[in-house]
Amino acid sequence: MQPDSYHPLDRIAREPEALEAFYRDHVEAVQRFVARRVADPHLAADLTADVFLAAVDSAASYDPTRAPVVAWLYGVGRNAIAAEARRRARELHAVRRIEGRRLVDGAALARIEERLDAERESRRLHRAIAGLPEDDRALLELVSLDGLSIADAARLLGVKPATARVRLHRSRARVTARLHDPEPAEAPDRALSLEVGP
Amino acid sequence: MNNNTLDSFESALLAELRQHVSEHPAPVAAPVRQPVRRPRRRLRLAVAGATGIAASVVAVFGLGGTGGSPAYAVAQNSDGDVVVTVHRLDDAAGLEKALKAKGIDADVSYDAEGFGSTFGVGPDGQVIPDLPPPTSGTGGGPTSVEGGTSIQGDTDGPSLTQTGPDGEAHPADPDDDPCGLGADPATLTQQGDDWVLTIPAGSPLQDRHVEIGTDSEGALSVAYAGDKERSMCGMVSVNRSPEERS
Q1: Cβ separation of A13 and B22 shorter than 8 Å?
Q2: Could you give the ipTM of this predicted complex?
């Protein structure tokens, strides 16, 4: 299959073959993206399914002139995780179209947990970022946590690269100070609502 | 394509996703780019004119026989007023540094596509330039301004112009001051080919973040957050007439 076998991207919402190519290219990145934000393996499995479903639902809105696919996918992922955080805050139980945790068996669980272990430091950073104003936080998350370029993250969030650089500089100083504060041990159940705001 | 082996979870999820798309395929309708819904607190403004003009204006000033001369001057009067004279839209970083030396935290950018046609205000009152252009209404005045303050190019002369909820533009005055910064925190005028920005001593702009850039027609503009919640203020220099541009 060609590397661009799922372009234009809206094909993934219609053609299982295009969806599969897209999925294979991005499934590791999405799982790591999730693992940088939540500590619970079952929730991570659910959210991985949520992010791909959200990508299928909004594939028609992807504009290749604005950002690379992976940047767009991280934007979709942030929204999907924020939606889950809002549901939890209101104590609503999500009825999922695909329940990721149901698909996890022993061997897969071990792999998910490995990934979660590997991203422990990232989650610590993510918690430190959580106290920033929302716009600054989104920017720092996408650049420092998820590795997007400043230009891509700025485009995704609709700000000028120069402005993004100024804000990143300011945010990094604040987060560095916060990382040096002692913090309590990771609390998986509270982690999501702490880590992801509305 | 990535041929990494999927584990049991990844394979099962792929199968579910494939099934989902087979059973509920999206309609083949022409790809509609969905407009991004902006938060209401972001005020928007459209300035007339094609964006291409900005680039041509920059080129005229950049090459117009002023080769080695400085692009700007920053001076401080004995009474504390800071006077910025912009000769050419060039060396944005140098101007930023010069302003910093006077204690003014400014972000300067003359990118043709940079902040100019649209602005917004973030949740903390910070100015967010460079929103995507509104999908409709590329006419002269502000469009889609959802109440409050906007930046508007004044066709009669450079001035701080504010738009009330009634949509009518009127000059700033202390009794009706949506920015909460007083009537004239700064002035922006055009003198010949130069723009002159004066920030008086004691002006609130001397201690807040200021964005200096160009509007979509290549005129100098200045934006900053107001003191009142979600207010956004600024100035756009008078646009050049088409004869002057050519």
Answers
A1: no
A2: 0.85
